[in-house]
Amino acid sequence: METYIFYILAGAILIFALLSVTTRRVLRAAVYLLFALGSTAGIYFMVEFLFLAAVQLLVYVGGVVVLIIFSILLTSQINDRLEQPEWLKVMATMLLVVVGAGLSLFVIREYDFNISETAMTAPTVSDIGLKLLSYGPGGYVLPFEVISILLLAAMIGAIVIAKRMKEND
Amino acid sequence: MEFSIYDFSTLTNSIHEGLSNSFSPTWVMIIEMSLVGLAFLGLFAVLGVTLVYAERKVSAVIQQRMGPMRVGKWGLLQTIADVIKLVLKEPLMNRQADKLLFGIAPFIIIIASFLAVAAVPFAKGLHALDFDIGILYVSAVSSIGVIGILLAGWSSNNKYSLIGAMRSGAQIVSYELSVGLSLLTIVVLSGSLQFSEIIESQANGWWIFKGHIPAFIAFVVFLIAGTAETNRGPFDLAEAESELTAGFHTEYSGIKFAFFFLAEFANMFIICAIGATVFLGGWMPLHIGDLAGFNAIMDFIPPIVWFGMKVTFLIFLMMWFRWTFPRLRIDQLLKLEWKYLLPINLVNILLMAFIGLMGWHF
Prior knowledge:
Chain A is mainly α.
């Protein structure tokens, strides 16, 4: 049963990813990207990494895609079409794709995966929270604080930009 | 087959055993998933019909009218007649619209509602998804709904729809923050995101009583932000009929329009159910300290009735808001969120963390 669900989701990711780079309507591309990211979240749900799945939905679907759609809504018209790419560019891209896929497949086939004997359990929210704030070995408190400062700087920057616009009016 | 109204796990377990005896595990899984899906479809149909009727009657009472009275006794069959009308109507399509996106937008909204309602605990043992990440899951899947609104507005190729969708998007993205933070205020006390554990932690009293004033502030913020997130009045300027005809669903008709309508009422139910679960104890009966006699009487009322009463109360509050407050302007709406609710919420969550740390809550 799980195998079937995996193949359905994986197929959906591949098809929507392909559609999102081949469509000539920019908002449709964003929607196909949304479906591809949502199917990825589906795979995380299937293997019961719930926190990762929820973050995938919250950050990529609820955040990134909404931001992309917002900017498309503000900048493009419904009848706009992206122009057909040049023949040479298409060939170059396909070559790159084939080489990239070949390299990934080669690495995956060469790597010998160790199947662990103990059953894998997904970490709970409290495990993740404790790990994020622990300063012992394997703790993530330094990256956590660095990212917090980065976000704070970004927020202050956004406020400053918004304020300057107002004074010019 | 034994069945107790006080614990639905007896019912669900007996169904599971009955199916396991006659089918292979794969088929049991498929049948159970279909059963749960059918149950939620039925719930949405009943919710849509009853909530529309309730909204009409509540607005009628507030405006000193009778409301629908003609179809059936007290107009009880009015909404069923309306559903039949909506289903029979022609689904019109704007020739200049982006037909694919126009078609899938209502489905995205309704799927988001279905995903969110699956995490609602209705009664003891009557709970489709009891994730460890409960509240995070609900806020994650409910953020999908806004994409449907944006797509509907853009693909209609209509200025009013586009403006309505932009307003609605800005509103939902902003107020999501306040909904999440006000729920987190209670998570600080309960120490878990899982709905079943949040309910268990309220066995000796609901958080709105145990959490002192910060819990009450969080509840009020949750109600305001929840009303805004469901695009209901006084925050319904996404579909302000005097300025924008009907906002993002202007071009929709027939069954697709019914989807938007149903999703709005379903989202109202979900917000009220989450609020009832986190602040008012979900299906947990009202218990007061050591009053054993009083508590025993309260225990006699089945959990599903408690849940229904709390949700009905919150839904009535939201309808009351809609029919008594005037609509806000877009700048007032965004100012309310970013300059008032969000700072209040952040200070409130700090205060609550301090109370939790000192152990001052009950």
